[in-house]
Amino acid sequence: MNFDLTDERQMLQDGLRRYLADAYNAGARKSIDEAEVGFSEDIWNSLADMGVIGALFSEEEGGFSGEGFDIALVFEEMGRVGAQDPLIDTAVLGGGLISILGNGGQKDLVEAIITGSQHLAFAHGEPTSRFDLSNVSTTAKQSDEMYVLNGRKAVVVNAPSSSHIIISARTSGDTTDTSGISLFLVKSDADGVTRRSYPLVGGGHAAEVTLSDVAVQKDALLGVEGEAFDAISAVNAKATLAICAEALGLMESIKTLTNEYLKTRKQFGVPIGKFQALQHRLADVLIEIEQARSAVINLAGHLDAEASVRDVHVSATKNLIGLTARLVAEEGIQMHGGIGMTMEYDLGHLAKRLTMIDHRFGDTDYHMERFIELAVA
Amino acid sequence: MDLNYTEAELTFRDEVRAFIKAKLPNHLVDRSKQGKSLTKEDFEEWHAILNAQGWLAPNWPKEFGGKAWNAVERHIFEDEMTKANAPRVVPFGLSMLGPVLQAFGTKEQQDYYLPRILNGDDWWCQGYSEPGAGSDLASVRTSAVREGDFFIVNGQKTWTTLGQYANKIFCLVRTSKESKPQKGISFLLIDMDTPGIEVRPIVLIDGTPEVNEVFFDNVKVPVRNLVGEENKGWTYAKYLLTHERTNIAGVGFANAGLENLKRIARLEQSSGKPLIANPYFASRIARVEMDLMAMSTTNLRVVSSAAAGHAPGAESSMLKIKGTVIRQEINALTRTAVGPYAMPFASEALEEGSNVEPVGPNYAAPATAQYLNNRKLSIFGGSNEIQRGIITKAILEL
Fold first, then answer.
1. End-to-end distance of chain B based on CA atoms, in angstroms?
2. Range(s) of the domain holding residue A29
3. ipTM, 2 decimals?
4. Helix (H) and strand (E) counts for chain B?
5. How many domains does chain A have?
6. Distance from CA of A187 to the nearest CA of B (A)
7. Which residues of A touch B272 (CB under 8 A)?
8. B41 is known as an active-site residue
9. Chain B CA closest to residue A278
10. Residue A1 within any structural domain of the chain
11. Most distant CA pair in chain A: distance in Å?
């Protein structure tokens, strides 16, 4: 048993933490929020140069490692500064799907992702599918040497900046069948693809993607027709780990800000941290964050286990992170008082980004239900 | 013990309902249901309708144009209004300053200001909190120094709600530093047009500029604008806060929010069923509904006791805590209910008069903004920590 980072990971963590603390300085957030794409191209390129994107892929895939602990490490650091770079969308989901399913030519995209020159989005969720991974009503019908796609994809994060979108569509079966789902790598500006773009509460941008008679060549198919579900589950597990680790970083920073505030904010002639009512609440926050850290480690350590084991940890971790995130965001704001509710102070962005994490890859109720199915019932 | 309203109370309730049906404009209800912010004109329109009925300041004594309703009548009125999604009455002039002037103002101040509040000539805002004086309100530092017939005011107020619409501000200012902090505070009425005043918006985490900072740089205020006696302002401030605490439980808001939540949970699909049929989510709705049922009765117990002449003390602290926690839970469940469509930042679609189509279903657009905005409920008007402190001291005597 050893919970220490390897030397390589320690170096990556140190370098990344130093870089991000500098890149996300006080003035950076405003210019990032005002940028058209919702993140900074400069920071993105630096992350690529530092090997941060490569750390999310195995050597076989063209990266450096790509294990659960690498993903957890990178995303915790991103979370600490409230970074809103689309690493999950471009690398974990987009790059991940192509690595698993892509053929030789398609895999060239992974190299472009690792070097920072390519952005991707995964258009899977639909307006009424909520968090069900197998709920796909977008259709892909074969005609001659083409597939023709029709449907609507909801809240496709990073679609506005992506040159290509991976679209899930049903080639056979009923709306919620796991079999019959296929993936297509489609150019964002293809005929029939429309993107309605908008900013997100937690930072970054997304789009509603409408597909009307989008005709793609057969070579746009990723993997085998109708058999994409297992790959979708696998990248979803990886992305869940990433977002949970990000939540952990956000929670650590909120705790630190709140701790500092309790030491410096004076009311009734003393720092408010002298009041035991607040001391004990921050102690509870600390305990729950340590639980969250253990949950993230559990998932990171089981990411490559067989699906049935992996998914127990996916649900256990995401449920616990969801509950803890709400506690930490709400207590952070409450213990700050009014200042915690302002856009100008860092806490606001961190708390919002943390709160929104329960709205991606399944919320606490979804994972409670799933955990009961997989591990309890 | 009788949990039912009396005949007279029921008649009164029907009268309120009939008024709402006849006079509450649909466009204001729609805007409130869609979670859109109201403009100054919206509030003024509704105030004028209520004023024409004589119901704008029903808690005021009759001699000042009120109805002198008792606590039960006020409760019925507020309950029906919130259930009907009527705009809230802006409280600063009507519920806060009005009662202070009636109790402590000069005849001249009463004759001048009170009719102007009713007629909508003045929009008041509240100059209480400062950057260093939040929960610890008695530590206000904005100073007022007497020079002849004027006070010269210097300092800064903050969290001034809807100050951008106001032409007047009532302020707690420091007129003496000699004894304990509570004893050197005065209550001043200040015209926002006076040279030296600057209002700067504070943008909150939901993206709205609802509150402001107000800066005072050598602002000349006539001595006749002092309310009551110099250095006795803390007494008036506390008096005002007890009036601020009417309807503190927010039962009507909670009921309206719960109805909206259930409507959304019936429309949202989860695993091929309506979300409301999901036992995990349904049990969380049930939990908050049961809490609300009990809290409504706690509220009525306090209201009846107040109607019988007992001034609510620490009981209102209990109602504030329970009421805000319930409303915040309803907001959190509503955010959860809309799933991924909680993520789009929809501030444009929520602006009044906006034609921007929301990204997801109409009901989803305001969910996150309202959740974030209502984190304020447990912070303002005496944070829930301060309320617990009041209960600890006043009831538990610890």
1. 32
2. 7-114
3. 0.95
4. 14, 10
5. 3
6. 23
7. 176
8. no
9. B385
10. no
11. 79
Considering only CB atoms, A200 lies closest to which of B203, B339, B345, namely B345
Tokens of B115: 């009719």
pLDDT score of B113 more than 80: yes
The pair of three-digit structure tokens given for residue A18, joined into one six-digit string: 């130093």
Residues 6 or more apart in contact with residue A330 via CB below 8 angstroms: B328, B375
Please answer yes or no on whether A130 and B270 come within 8 Å at the CB atom.
yes
B171: β partners: B127, B188
What pLDDT digit, counting tens, does each position of B154-210 carry?
999 999 999 999 999 999 999 999 888 899 999 999 999 999 999 999 999 998 889
Per the CB < 8 Å rule, is B385 touching A130? no
pLDDT (mean) for B61-73: 90
pLDDT digits (tens, 9 = 90+) for A336-375: 999 999 998 999 999 999 999 999 999 999 999 999 999 9
Strand (E) or helix (H) holding B174? strand B168-174
In the stretch 157-196 of chain B, residues with CB closer than 8 A to chain A read 158-159
- Residue position matching structure tokens 């409408």: A210
Examine the fold and report which residue of A182, A199, A226 is the final residue of a domain before the chain moves on.
A226
Does some domain include residue A2? no
**What number is the average pLDDT over the span B27-35?**
86
Could you give all domains of chain B from N- to C-terminal order, each with its CATH number?
Answer: 7-89 (no CATH), 124-232 (2.40.110.10), 248-394 (1.20.140.10)
Q: State the CB neighbour count (10 A cutoff) for residue A1.
A: 2
Token pair of A79 as six digits: 């979370």
Determine contact: B17 vs chain A, CB below 8 A: no
Residue of B244, B268, B315, B329 marked catalytic: B244
How is residue B342 annotated by DSSP? G
DSSP reduced 3-state for A158: coil
Query: Which residues on A lie below 8 Å from B281 (Cβ)?
Result: 365
Whether residue A180 has pLDDT greater than 70:
yes
| Percentage with pLDDT > 90 across chain B | 75
Contact check, Cβ <8 Å, A201/B368:
yes
* Each residue's pLDDT tens digit, B208-253: 889 999 999 999 999 999 999 999 999 999 888 776 566 788 888 9
Nearest by Cα to A158 from A34, A38, A46: A38
Q: In chain B, which residue's Cα lies nearest the Cα of A327?
A: B332
